[in-house]
Amino acid sequence: MHPLDMDHVGFGRGIKGVVMGDSNPQTFVPYLAALHAQGKLPYGRFVKFYDFSDINQAIADSKSGEVIRPILRMGS
Hints:
Layout (H helix, E strand, L loop, with lengths): L24 H13 L5 H4 E5 L3 H10 L4 E5 L3
Parallel strand pairs: 1-2
């Protein structure tokens, strides 16, 4: 549970929980692809691959914001 400051929720604002995404893939994926093609979606900052032996660096980069989604490669 997370405490909420009601001053930040008032005035027409709300909180919405989302499970497993909340978009229409038929429209959202092409939209993201178009943003990427225009250079407006820094995909390289979202995803970075790491060898499993570099797991500690992947964790550190995730915590620092260097990368949003570190992906570990296992095996060759």
